[in-house]
Every structure is written in structure tokens, then in C-alpha cells.
């Protein structure tokens, strides 16, 4: 049995565009588990507002780097770690772009490969470049002011980081786009598309 840990933000957690949370069976990690089979365990450890490594002054506990080691120990040993973070890094109060988000992901990669007190083997890594942000609406509009153009560069910088660090790479923008309802979060179809894309990437590396 393989343990796959999905470490992400609200796109992994299952945020419904413009509010609420999808039932478990509609979130992409659960859909991925269904594709892989019940003999494997896919853990959804998404958290709305989570960043790669920035401390959000408005939301407590959202620094992804600060909590990754604890997550790996809590659910370990983890066979595959899926990282999809960076969308929240583009909120205007952080004043950073896709390059800095990718460098944050690189720090997460490094953290996942550090020795731990349990001698767990290091997980295989899947780095997902988040989908491009569309025109944010409602409460998203102010937070993500200027983020649309920045998000166009996720693919380039994340791929560079993934290749350099020998990670499996997926460009989410190549298989889906956010809901037009708020320009940031995923509709049910996009959750299905993401689960299928990840499944195709990892199915041959997982033992039945």
C-alpha cells in the first residue's frame, strides 16, 4: 500500500468557488484515491490560505514550510508527496511573484529530504504548478490584484525547480483552468481533470 500526501492550499482542501467546501468525494485527492484503488491511501492535507513559506499577517498557521516536517511525521512514512502551493503567494500583500513562489517550493523540497528521527525514507516528489488565475471576482479581486499576470509564469519557474531537483512535474494550467465564478478555485470538472492528470503521472510508480 502506498501513502500519498497532498500538501496544498484551498485548491486541494476543496474550496467551492465563492464559498463552502466540496463533499469529500468531489475533492481531487479523493478522486485520485478512487483511481488508484482502496489499497492505497491518499491524504488530503490542504489548508485554505496556505503559502509556500510566507507568514500571513491575516491568517494564522499558513506558512507551508513551517508545518511540512510535522505533516510528514504525522502521516509517515509517506511514499509520494504532492506539492501544489503558490497561488496564495501571489496575494498582493506578499509583494512576490511566481519566481519567488517557485523558490518557496524548492525550500519545501529540501525540507522533505532532510533526515528525521524516525528514519523514514524520503518520499518521491510531485511538483504541480498551480493553474493560472483568471479574472478574480468578489472578495478575491482585492486580494489577488495583479496576480493574473504573475500566475502566467508559474509553469516556467516551477518546471525549472522540478527538473533541477529531480521531481515529477505537472503544469496544472495545461489540463484545467479555475472556475470563472471567482477566477481562483476549481469547479468539479477541474477537480476531476487534476485527479486524472496526477493519476497518469504516478500510476506506474506505485506498487499494487
UniProtKB/TrEMBL annotation:
Source domain of life: Bacteria
Alphabetical keyword list: Hydrolase
InterPro entries the record matches: Ester_Hydrolysis_Enzymes, SGNH_hydro, SGNH_hydro_sf
Start and end residues of each SGNH hydrolase-type esterase domain: 6-187
GO molecular function: hydrolase activity, acting on ester bonds
Pfam family, any one: Lipase_GDSL_2
Name of the featured protein: Arylesterase
